[in-house]
Design goal:
alpha/beta, six-stranded mixed sheet
Length: 119
Amino acid sequence: MALKFKVDENLPIEVVQLLREAGHDVCSVHEQGLAGAKDQILAEVCQSENRAMVTLDTHFADIRTYPPENYGGLIVLRLARQDKPHVIEVMRRVLNLLLSKSFEGKLWIVDEKKVRVRG
């Protein structure tokens, strides 16, 4: 089952490739000419496209500003290390969870050891 994602500009392009190789429908912020856009604009685009946002931006973890139930999903990576190989490694683990757990209308906060789900 193909899921729909928007990958934020703060993540390596390899995350887009990883999700696409897994068969998902993925757009990056860069590809859509939204690099540098305010978070609220990105959130509105995600809503209109019914895409889950994948980001390192912890502002998206604020459920008062971005209530998870209003989105196709919010996946916020809160990693101690944000180098490319580490981010890709964590995203590979997240990919396995995507197939078994629903994230639509939910906030996933992902760190190296666990995924916390709100919503």
